[in-house]
Amino acid sequence: GNLGACHVRLENPAHPVRYRGVVCSMKENFGFIERADVVKEIFFHFSEAKSLKEELKLGDDVEFIIQTRNGKEVACNITKLPPGSIVFEEINDEIMKGQVLKPLERGNAARHQSDPLPGRIRYRAPDYSEVEVPFGDKDQKGDFTL
Fold first, then answer.
1. CSD domain: from which residue to which, for each copy (predicted)?
2. What's the order of all strands across the beta sheet hosting 130-135?
3. Helices in the chain by DSSP H: which ranges?
4. Which of 71, 96, 100, 109 has its CA 20 to 30 A from that of 132?
């Protein structure tokens, strides 16, 4: 016959990883969070923030876990963080000179690009080490030819 398990219990349950982000758009009963760990947005339903005393607002810093539903990642168990908890990037006022290693694609190739920061620049840091940084369409101040 067939064997089956009964009285199953999880030993040493893993704590799910909590991610951070900022609420970037909201509709009637759902919205999107801009993730702090990767350059992409994740869907959430308002019911996933039901433990909050007040409703989520645009620009709120939040923490959440990720679950897969219908083959898509969604934010769940959403909690608010204190304002200013999420810093996406720090912009240095100092102007650096560098070399474009990989320019941005133009035309059809750019539309099929999955990496939001596909360009690469190399510059020499104050300690004389070489540093490579990615850049995207929004970073570029104009069109240039190499």
1. 18-80
2. 98-102, 119-124, 130-135
3. 108-111
4. 109
The angle subtended at Cα 73 by Cα 68 and Cα 77, nearest 5°, is 80
Cβ–Cβ < 8 Å for 60, 79? no
Residue type, 33: I
19-80 has which fold?
Answer: OB fold (Dihydrolipoamide Acetyltransferase, E2P) (2.40.50)
Tokens at 8, concatenated: 């199953």
CA proximity to 81, closest of 16, 29, 15, 19: 19
How does pLDDT run across 15-55, given as a tens digit for each residue? 788 999 999 999 989 999 999 888 789 999 999 987 776 78
Whether residue 141 is predicted with pLDDT greater than 90 in this model: the reply is no
- For the chain, give the mean pLDDT: 84
The model scores a pTM over 0.70: no
Tell me, rounded to whole angstroms, the distance of Cα 51 from its chain centroid: 23
Tokens of 19: 């991610």
- Where are the domains positioned within the chain? 19-80, 98-139
